[in-house]
Structure formats: C-alpha cells, structure tokens
Amino acid sequence: MINYNGEMQSSDITLSNSNRGFLYGDGVFETLKIVNNKILFLEDHYFRLMASMRIVRMQIPNNFTLEYLEEQVLHLAKVSNCVNSARVRLTVFRNDGGFYLPQTRSVSFIIQIVPLHETAYSFSDAIYEVDLYKDFFITKQLLSTIKTTNKMINITGSIFADENDLQNCLLLNNEKNVVEALNGNLFMLIGNQLITPSIEEGCLNGIMRKQVLQIAKEMKNLEVLEQPISPFELQKADELFITNVIIGIQPITKYRKKEYNSSFSKTLVEKINTLI
C-alpha cells in the first residue's frame, strides 16, 4: 500500500508520463523511521521538509501541518501492519505541466513504507570499508543541504562502491573537502575533538546529525566542531562514523590503509536509544 495525496492505494500505482519528479527531479523527500507507532524526530523532519519546499519554491498546501502529515504516515503504517518498526519515504513533487518553468507551483505527495526488523538502533562492528568518490563533486550551495529527488551523485557513487567491494564512499565538495557519505553525514573523532563538516560545506542538513551534535555537546571533555575536513585528516582520526535516521550510527572500520576503533560510536548508539 501507498498513500497518494491522502488516499490509500495499491503499490502498483502508475504516475503520469508528465510527472515532474520523473522528468526533472522536481521533488523533495524525507526518510522517516517509525518505532512503536511513533515517528522519530518528527518535528525536525517536518521543519526540514517545509524549508526544502520553500527553497525550491513549491507552494505549501494549507493542510500540510505537522499533525496532518503525521496522521497520513501513521495511517499508512497501520493499514500496512508496520507500526512496530518501519522505514517511510515521504516524497513531495510539483504537479504536471511546463518544461523547466513549471505551469503550477502546487504539489502532490506519495508516502511509501517498508517494515524493519528492529526497533532500537543497533551497534555493528562488522567490516565497513570506505574510500573517496572523486568522479563528481557536491557544490557548496543551499540545494546540496536538502533531500531532492535528483541523487545522481549518490547513485553513481553507490555503483562505484559496489564495483570496488566497498561498503560506502565519501563525497567531496568543489573545494576537495570531505562533505558526507553516500547515505549520511560524516563524523570524525580525533582525541577529544568530534568534527563534522558544517552545513556551509554543502553537506545534508541531516536529522540524525542534529541529534548527535546535541548529545555530543552535553558530553564532558569533548570539543564539538563544525568545520571543513580535508581527505588527509581522515587518516589521523581515531574514529570515523556515518549517521542517518534509519541506521543511527554506522562505524567505519577502514579507510585505505587506516583501521579505526568504534568505542565512541558504541556509546553514541546507547545514548540515542535512550531518546526513543
């Protein structure tokens, strides 16, 4: 089942061949996690979605309140029997018409859901090797910080990782600084400093990134910095890890010849689970 503009429909719905999300990537989306019939970090997701729609000049419907979207997501979870734990994608796209210049600013939405096996975030110490992806670069601009339906860098980077037996890749911006991973934000621990690229570097304004920053700033003897990270600094790090709202914390165990421990990552997973 999917939720299409507030109506429950079968998952084989056919969109128009003039769909702007398909033709031009004219859409934004949020990836949500449901645990025990609750959307985690709902307000953060909602305000990021509203900001994304404003950035790309979409018309925000009057009924697009936090309560309305929460109701639509949880209703789909209920009819899909996914209330315990699920991954949800809420996609908003501009309605049909026009070429690069839309004929309308009005929007439609689709909500899709996939069940997950675990409710709490789990810690994994399995081998997780990454490398740099240098075929294309993220630009330092506001569009890079939101989740649009144009994810070609992430797609080609994922293919590169698969072809080279890597679990993930790290993306660079146009100044050759490390920005993020293919599927989440990047954090680096060096001594008592926890460093992550700032939003101004072009990284996604991640929801789990925000939670980790809040938790880390309350920890004693830890300095939290948002600043550029050069590729050369990665091999000086004690730990590297990736964050997103579905996996929580994913420790990186190897980058090129450098191997990392993950004790700090494990502590963060425990602290995040206390939030849910």
Could you characterize what this model shows?
- This protein is 26% helix and 31% strand.
- It is built from 7 helices and 16 strands.
- The chain is globular and about 50 Å long.
For the largest beta-sheet, the strand count, sense and barrel status come to: 10 strands, mixed
Determine Rg (CA atoms, Å): 19 Å
Give the beta-strand count: 16
Helix run count: 7
Structural class: alpha+beta
In short:
The chain is an alpha+beta fold. It is 26% helix and 31% strand.
Summarize the SSE layout with pairings.
Elements: E1 2-4, E2 7-9, H1 20-24, E3 27-35, E4 38-39, H2 42-55, H3 66-79, E5 85-94, E6 107-115, E7 129-138, H4 152-163, E8 168-173, E9 178-181, E10 184-190, E11 193-196, H5 207-217, E12 223-226, H6 231-234, E13 239-244, E14 248-252, E15 254-255, E16 258-259, H7 263-275
Parallel strand pairs: 7-8, 7-15, 11-12
Antiparallel strand pairs: 1-2, 1-6, 3-4, 3-5, 5-6, 8-9, 9-10, 10-11, 10-13, 13-14, 15-16
